[in-house]
Amino acid sequence: MATAVVRAIPAIALAVAYPLLAHWATHDGGGVPAAIAMADLVALCLIAPLMQGQSWAWGVLVVSGAALARLAQTPYAQMLLLAPPMLFVGFVAWMFWRSLRPPREPLITRIVAAMEGCEPAALPAPLYRYSRKLTAAWAYVMAALAVANGVLALIAVPDGVLARLGVASPVTIGQEAWSLFANLLNYGIVGGFFVGEYMLRRWLFPHRPYRHFFDFLRQMAALGPRFWRGLFD
């Protein structure tokens, strides 16, 4: 367990750093900060094979770094920052929706069953139904955030998609306001939903196998990397 946590530290550091770097890059408005933020994201996506010493991953990192260094000298580096918030939450929404289709079990149902130490079908019927509805709720929340990020990326000025294409939008939002939502408030909304749902669950199902919120987080982490990797297969 301790080894797994240590191995996760680089990924956690890169994940935490990206929204902060992206917001700084948007505030600065330059190509170099934008390239640094995107390099952080590339490293995050490649972190597992990089830590395993796989040569292809290091090759991709080097080539990506060179491409970003060149792009940093152009006015288009800032445009790259528009895509990740929309694509990331859109991908997560799709993963939740996909798990609702038979023969798969809903993502939340599988997590709950793992924490309860049983198969999904063995969960009490009310808890099974709740976990399925919660999976759908997460899909809705993430899809709504993806749409919001996409719309704001279109109408942001001066580096939004429509502005770059020379198309006048009847409604606009400042680049820094877009960044505040996409790179910071997104995570606040997700975190707020997570905590709020936990409080609702504790009220609806008080006799669950965790004593408090931090014990709940500890037990989720204790499921281990293999479980979390397999969850999205």
Give a description of the structure.
The model has no long low-confidence stretch (mean pLDDT 89). This protein starts with a helix and ends with a helix. Helices cover 76% and strands 2% of the residues. A two-stranded parallel sheet has the order 1-2. It has 233 residues and is mostly helical.
What's a concise summary of this model?
This protein has 233 residues and is mainly alpha-helical.
Observed structural traits:
single chain, 233 residues, 12 helices, 2 strands, globular
Note poorly predicted spans.
none
Q: Fraction of residues in helices?
A: over 70%
Count of DSSP-assigned helices: 12
Q: Strand share of the residues?
A: under 5%
The biggest beta sheet is recorded as: 2 strands, parallel
Total E-strand runs: 2
The geometry reads as globular
Sheet with the most strands: spatial strand order? 1-2
Terminal CA distance: 22 Å
The averaged pLDDT comes out at: 89
Q: What is the string of helix and strand elements?
A: HHHHHHHHEHEHHH
Oligomer: single chain
Compute the gyration radius: what is it? 20 Å
